[in-house]
Specification:
171 residues, mainly beta, globular
Amino acid sequence: MADENKPQVVLETSKGSITLELNKEKAPITVKNFLGYVKDGYYDGLIFHRVIKDFMIQGGGLDAEMQPKKTKFAIKNEAQNGLKNLRGSVAMARTALVDSATSQFFINTVDNAFLDNRGKRQEDFGYCVFGQVVDGLEVVDEIRQVKTGNKAGHGDVPLEPITIISAKVVE
């Protein structure tokens, strides 16, 4: 039986499956938000639109034509939860505003300590880690190796779209 404080989500991608284990205890707002998007089928058909090999892979907001999908309201940044941006961890993407995360997330491909919370100031706040890859890290590693370029004003876009076919909660 799945641990209710550690729900799992399987991302079926065009490169294979990635299983995320979410940390409801340390990031309750973020996990509830993410699971809401998953249950709505929001991520199905979106792409990993930003891939930087020795940094992270980011998705959950744009389709293959680089069109943004309408999101729900932004959530509180829980970056002060003690979880670290280590290889294989999953965190919320956001703008420069601390509490601006909506649907976009990224998976760290390497340890990115500079993204961790270092204080209350905007520039120190960091990015909220809310889970980790428990299966399919080799798929993440395959995605991080793809060729990227510029598309529709965005950089680091995979030349061949990497689609999230579906995102489902593991029952």
